[in-house]
């Protein structure tokens, strides 16, 4: 068995939700960080911490604040609405030699730095839940105190759960709307296709298998042929044929506009979440 990429690096997660689990699954599966060097805390749910500890063989004292503070990398994985409150508590305890990796939607590196009296290295990132299977599309950008080696560490950690692209911090909300939320759009599409498959006469599980393989095939075609999606679409579409009829229906129901609006609204919501006043909003 090969060694881990980071045999001694300790990683602490603040927040024990969906994205934390996806990242831990990816990190442990990819043999990046030994399970025994990962710790997690959340607000109050001990059962959830135990569940993660059991599932990923985490042996550090998960409920222990000290385990987080001793970590080399601290991942901020809480909801934007509690970010300022959590940072008020933890920010003063972070040390200059720690790397703070934030996955919080909308919250800027400046906002995080402002809550930390020490000049901590803050890397802001936006992964997605496909991290669990090593397929995240992750954006990354750096705060003002990030040194080259901090950034390299952050990138190596994140590359183990998918691809990593550096963007301007001003583009982070756009990536959040597009790729952070992106898996949900595809799942929604699959849900709709599965219902439609049943409607046209297939068993649900058979429809599901066809849909999943169709998704994988289409993604692989995009990767391996290098062709534009429009060209690949045209290759499926015979004039007057079945695809032509299907696409005509999608156009009639404003498919392109719906997708565009979804990404725009998600991007705007990410921008909103970064504003302190939004945390009073009941929609958070
Ligand atoms: N779920 C996703 O697909 C993605 C989420 N994100 C971001 O990651 C962050 C977390 O999202 P999820 O994991 O989906 O949320 P979640 O709701 O599943 O988990 C949030 C966790 O934070 C914990 N928490 C709340 N207050 C706390 C406190 N005071 N101290 C410690 N822990 C506390 C909760 O107990 C819970 O375990 C959000 O900012 C979100 O924008 C980023 C990329 C993708
Ligand atoms: O829905 C959310 O707010 C988070 C950010 C990206 C994906 N999920």
TrEMBL record:
Residues 169-273 form the Pyrroline-5-carboxylate reductase dimerisation domain. GO terms for molecular function: pyrroline-5-carboxylate reductase activity. Transmembrane segments: none annotated. Residues 10-106 form the Pyrroline-5-carboxylate reductase catalytic N-terminal domain. Its main location: cytoplasm. Its EC number is 1.5.1.2. One of its GO terms (cellular component) is cytoplasm. It is an enzyme of class 1 (oxidoreductase). It comes from the Bacteria. It catalyses: L-proline + NAD(+) = (S)-1-pyrroline-5-carboxylate + NADH + 2 H(+); L-proline + NADP(+) = (S)-1-pyrroline-5-carboxylate + NADPH + 2 H(+). NADP(+) binds at residues 77-80. Pathway: Amino-acid biosynthesis; L-proline biosynthesis; L-proline from L-glutamate 5-semialdehyde: step 1/1. Catalyzes the reduction of 1-pyrroline-5-carboxylate (PCA) to L-proline. Belongs to the pyrroline-5-carboxylate reductase family. This is Pyrroline-5-carboxylate reductase. It comes from Baia soyae.
